[in-house]
Known about the structure:
Layout: H1 3-33, H2 37-40, H3 46-56, H4 58-82, H5 85-91, H6 97-137, H7 140-143, E1 151-154, E2 157-160, E3 163-165, E4 168-176, E5 182-193, E6 199-211, E7 216-227, H8 229-236, H9 247-251, H10 258-262, H11 264-277, H12 280-292, H13 305-329, H14 334-354, H15 362-390
Antiparallel strand pairs: 1-2, 2-4, 3-4, 4-5, 5-6, 6-7
Helix pairs in contact: 1-4, 1-6, 4-6, 4-12, 4-13, 6-8, 6-12, 11-13, 11-14, 12-13, 12-14, 13-14
Amino acid sequence: MKLLELYILRRVVQMFLTALLPVLAIIWTTQVLARINLVTDSGQSVGSFMTLATLILPTIVSAVLPFALVIGITQTLTAMNNDSELAVIDAAGAARGTILRPIITMAVVLSVFSFAMINFVEPKMRVNVREMIAAAYADLLSTVIEEKSFRRLDEGLYIQISERQGRILKGLLVADSRDPASAFIYYAREGAVEENGQALLMRDGEVQRKTVEGNVTVIRFDSYSFDLSELSSNRGQARLNSGDRNLAFLLNPDPNDPQYKERPGKYHAELHRRMSVWLFPLAFALISLVICGDARSHREARLHPMAASLLLTLGLFWMSNYTVSLAEQASATTPLIYMVPLSAILLSGWALYSGKRLSLPKPIANMLTRLQARLRKLTPQDESSSAGGAA
């Protein structure tokens, strides 16, 4: 690679990382904070929480990467155009590939990286996250319930204990309002969770039942078994969605898998999404090059290249998600998933090969030209009036 190409590549990579890392940090932080209940509800250590945060990070890289590439390319080439570097390169007789080659090479490398992340790394990390959360809640009652503090086990289900003696729980209070028809409050002198975690055995207590009409019934008991089977199965076993499945499963799904039987269209759409979305770095890079890959006059009326590129790529990204949702409902629309990135690549490649430039519609361009002319006229008047006032 020539010296000038290395110079352009280095500047694009620096700006790409400058855009990628802060945005990635912001999105990562929001995703991690959404899982803070792993510590607050289940009593896990900070180390476990940091492990979970590390597992989440690779799952968001591929979504942020194409847009960071757009920012890196447009910002670099716009700065080079403003500094007349692109004009000097053209005047020196350098081939157009001097600018295109390093950027397209970088985009191809990032597309291959995205393919590996989306199809191999992300599913594994998602499964690890779900298994870690499921394991943290698997034996919640007998391991992490703290003394003299309310803990939410499920929506509408809370528990408090006054003392723990091994697996024996003293001073039990259970509030269960999951049934909209009635609410239950259980008091017991002591209790314990069965070894299999399927039930909470309570002894020497009473249960209060309150209906929606306000009627209260109190029943005393010597022993009572509170069913935890549904809670234990939900907490102890990770539920995998289509986005968590590996590529091998999507290519040949198990027809007896309950999740697949419930929504087979979602697995079909997920497979084709993964087979197409990795092309976005290349498509976005070509769009950015069409918009700002040539030297242009500062007087030319146009949107800022970064704004124009981001608008087009966001629209392309939205269209891709829309076609995926269509394919989930009707498999006949599956080719549309591939048409979105491939059309962008082919049209942008044709524009670069033929030297075509994107331009604003004439009415909008004329309006921007008049606005710029007025601003230029106002600036000298303001300076002269301020000078006359000073005299």
